[in-house]
Amino acid sequence: MRAGELRFTILDRYMLGELAGPFGFGLGAFTLIFAATEILNIGKLVSADHAPLWAAVLIFLWSLPAQIVLCIPMALLLGTLLTIQRLSGDSEVTAMKAAGITFARIVAPLLAVGIVMSFVTYFLQERVVPYANGQLTEIENSVINHTSAFSRDLTVSAPLPGGGRQMTLATAYDPNTQALLHVTLVQYDSANQPRQIVFADRAQFTANKWVLENSSVYRFNPDGTTLAEPRIPQQQVEIGENPTDIVKRISNDDPENMSRAQIAEVVHTNQLTESEYRKYVTTYQEKLARPFACFVFILIAIPFGLRSMRGGGSAIGLSLVIVFIYYIVMTVCSFLAEAFVPLAALWAWVPNILFTAIGLTRLRRAAMV
């Protein structure tokens, strides 16, 4: 391919325009299918759990990012099938070839979209989805279940030297800075009577220790009086858990609810059981490989679109078959990755490698026609 052929041309705009409509249709259709259960959940929350309608709607909206990340590759598959079927059925591909445009140049914009969307999907998976899941959990706890957002996930109980215990409560956890926000520490003596309460803006985890920032201390004397100490800019405390323990609990000990960075932090603590370690490492590798199904699906859809029957119905059916086979292969490879953890990275990429090989083989044959 000559260097001049790499410029963005009218052909590129035309191909991208042809893909945009079917892709949008596919994304909407697949998202609606996967979100159907969430739509039903809105009615259940409002009618059975007497939740406010606005809270149920917010739960539905915050669940959408995870659904969209799952649907983007499938939407690209369907969109590419519909696009190529129309161009092939109307003999536009034949006309382009007759004008001297190579088949590789015709489909290059579609393949470029696959690469770009792979990175976009990865960004959504790592940045947007974990945040959305956190917001969803907070609404469920504070509004639907009528409990504080931190009562289950961000409460830590730890014994104190000499007897007694300390309860640490926080309203939120910032995984980027490894900080607990709006922290309250309550210390009890051996008779379970409160003897000190500490309020702080945040607790920052630095150099393997927690440091309270802008804290206020109130001590309860045995005679019933209360002593308030001046505001302390910083003071070191022992909470009883490190950030990785908190991340595991917030995510219900499910690596699927974590970003790859959070999974890596948990793995590096060396506190996982053997089965947990296998699950976390496998998910860590799979979360890198999955977004690139966007490119793989476009690659395999192009030759199938050229040879399949015309019509949207056949494209939808074919896309479902391809997706079904892909996820069967992915499930088998996930099982093998957990069984052979040293090869987890390889098994995570096997579905993409296999379908890429199939797509390239069929694409080469299609280019010769």
Characterization of the model:
By secondary structure, the chain is an alpha+beta fold. It has a domain at 155-241. Helices cover 61% and strands 15% of the residues. It has 10 helices and 8 strands. It has helices at residues 10-47, 53-89, 92-98, 103-144, 243-250, 260-268, 274-289, 293-307, 312-339, 344-368; strands at residues 155-159, 165-169, 172-174, 179-188, 194-206, 209-220, 226-228, 232-237. Strands 1, 2, 3, 4, 5, 6, 7 and 8 form an 8-stranded antiparallel β-sheet that branches. Helix 1 (10-47) runs parallel beside helix 4 (103-144), helix 2 packs antiparallel against helix 4 (103-144) and helix 9 (312-339) packs antiparallel against helix 10. The chain starts with 9 loop residues before the first helix and ends with a helix. Residues 146-152 have low confidence and may be disordered.
Characteristics:
369 residues, alpha+beta, 8-stranded antiparallel sheet, 10 helices, 61% helix, 15% strand
Offer a quick outline of the entry.
The protein has helices at residues 10-47, 53-89, 92-98, 103-144, 243-250, 260-268, 274-289, 293-307, 312-339, 344-368, and strands spanning 155-159, 165-169, 172-174, 179-188, 194-206, 209-220, 226-228, 232-237. The chain is of the alpha+beta class and 369 residues long.
Q: Which radius of gyration do the C-alpha atoms yield?
A: 27 Å
Helix and strand composition category: alpha+beta
Name the poorly predicted regions: 146-152
Question: Rough shape?
Answer: elongated
Write the layout of secondary structure elements.
Blueprint: H1 10-47, H2 53-89, H3 92-98, H4 103-144, E1 155-159, E2 165-169, E3 172-174, E4 179-188, E5 194-206, E6 209-220, E7 226-228, E8 232-237, H5 243-250, H6 260-268, H7 274-289, H8 293-307, H9 312-339, H10 344-368
Antiparallel strand pairs: 1-2, 2-4, 3-4, 4-5, 5-6, 6-7, 6-8
